[in-house]
Specification:
It is a single chain. This protein has 453 residues and is mainly β. The chain is 2% helix and 57% strand. A hairpin with a 5-residue loop joins strand 20 (381-406) and strand 21 (412-423). The chain is extended. The two termini are 45 Å apart.
């Protein structure tokens, strides 16, 4: 078994884990020049006030000491916390004192955590001014690392030699590992939040990107480098009207725009061999190799995938399945506009009602799909190119209504109505062009080097 398949024995220490600093940053300047007058015995200590605000700030500074024993890849997959200083937590609050007037805001609150190297970070900010407005913002970051080497691993013991002298390699990294980061931003702004009529706008973004490894099977297992770049942008507009006490009517428009720009290509570490003409080639990440300093004498008569192990890199047999190159791109564009109307009411005595109606008119476009394989695959497949495009839509209508009638203190009657109707039409057009070589002749040494129609 690979050493990296063992779960590590992990110890994560924390230095200065509870170093809490409370600092009054608004102390008047002249307070540093002369001592403050002594408070009378029994008098309460007043908060420090500057410019009409009370200020509170805390900082939790510290760090981690991480020592691992075993598989570092598995430790990063499960924990991924490493040694170093950290800002474990930080808060900052401003609150207006009574009877003070401010032009921009009455309350400001900020919070951060995890900055300095942790895989998870968060920062929040909130501003508000009485009845005028309320603003809330949040940023989150999440790094995900995955290298579980048992996934997609043929589990060949190290140094296993077959009866014909070939050595099977031991995989120590997962062919489906990834190292991606996700960044999420949420912003919400409400005007006249407690008035009879209020307006809300919002924006949210979710981005996932980073390199990953994937695989494709075309005669043999090819190792692919998959570059992620998917993003979602959501825009929200809403209005709330409260015509009666305990009655609210809401209209909301939500528009979600998705962009998928993930692409695939041969992983550089997968092209670990060469052909007789020096071209980089891959014959699969689970291929077998000849013993050191050995060479095969019969190109196509030899059953092994390596013709010569004395070259650097080793020379592959051009008569077997392999990859010279592989590329796939499939950009996706999706737009989800949704109109929604909601209401809640308990104005009528002993009667509570709520309802929702929404309509979605979504469409998805894949303007151009492109996939190209260059190598030697199934049944003499030499080159394959797939192109195409697609379109799809989703039309959805949903309605919900619920009512509760409180007949007596111990008896109530409730009913719920739900309606959903949707359809998803779509079309796609794909074209495949194949070029093959003849497998009838035993002399096919140039299969991977040049096409032989």
């Amino acid at each position: 078994m690979p050493n990296s398949s063992f779960l590590p024995r992990m110890a994560v220490g924390t230095i200065a884990s509870a170093l809490l600093l409370t600092l009054a940053i608004t102390m008047p300047r002249d307070a540093w020049a002369q001592p403050a007058p002594a408070k009378p015995a029994g008098a309460a200590l007043a908060e420090t006030v500057k410019d009409g605000y009370t200020v509170h700030q805390t900082a939790d500074l510290g760090g981690h000491i991480a020592k691992t024993d075993g598989s570092g890849a598995m430790y990063d997959t499960l924990v991924n916390i490493h040694s170093g200083p950290r800002v474990l937590g930080q808060t900052y609050d401003l609150h207006a004192v009574p009877d003070s007037k401010h032009l921009v805001f009455d309350t400001l609150s900020a919070f951060t955590s995890g900055f300095g190297g942790d895989p998870n970070n968060v920062a929040t900010l909130r501003l508000s001014k009485g009845k005028s407005y309320d603003f809330q913002g949040m940023f989150r970051r999440d790094r995900q690392y995955f290298d579980y080497d048992l996934l997609g691993n043929p589990l060949v013991p190290s140094g296993l030699v077959t009866t014909n002298g070939y050595t099977l390699p031991q995989l120590t990294d997962s062919p489906h590992m990834f190292n991606t980061v996700r960044r999420m931003t949420d912003l919400h702004f409400t005007v006249l939040p407690i008035s009879k009529f209020s307006v809300r706008v919002g924006y949210s973004q979710n981005i996932a990107q980073g390199p990953t490894l994937s695989s494709v099977h075309e005669g043999t297992q090819g190792l692919l480098l998959q570059n992620w770049r998917n993003s979602t942008d959501t825009y929200t507009f809403g209005a709330d009207w409260k015509p009666l006490p305990q009655t609210r009517l809401t209209y909301q428009e939500t528009i979600t725009n998705y962009k998928g720009d993930t692409s695939f290509q041969m992983a550089p570490q997968g092209l670990n061999l060469q052909l007789s003409n020096g071209a980089p080639v891959s014959i699969g990440y689970d291929n077998i190799t000849l013993p050191a300093n050995s060479a095969a004498t019969s190109p196509c008569g030899n059953n092994g995938p390596i013709l010569n192990n004395t070259t650097s890199p080793p020379t592959a047999n051009a008569c077997i399945s392999g990859y010279l190159s592989y590329t796939r791109t499939q950009p996706m564009r999706t737009l989800f506009p949704t109109e929604e109307f909601r209401f809640q009411s308990s104005t009528i005595k002993n009667l509570q009602m709520n309802g929702r109606f929404s309509y979605t008119d979504a469409n998805m476009h894949m303007p151009n799909y492109y996939e190209n394989f260059n190598g030697l695959g199934r049944s003499g497949l030499r080159i394959e190119t797939v192109t195409g495009n697609g379109w799809a839509a989703r039309y959805s209508v949903n309605a919900d209504y619920g009512v509760v009638w409180q007949i007596t203190d111990k008896l109530s009657l409730s009913d719920q109505f739900d309606f959903s109707n949707f359809r998803q039409p779509g079309t796609n057009v794909f074209t495949t062009v194949d070029q093959k070589v003849s497998t009838a002749s035993p002399n096919n040494a140039s299969m991977l080097i040049a096409p032989n129609p």
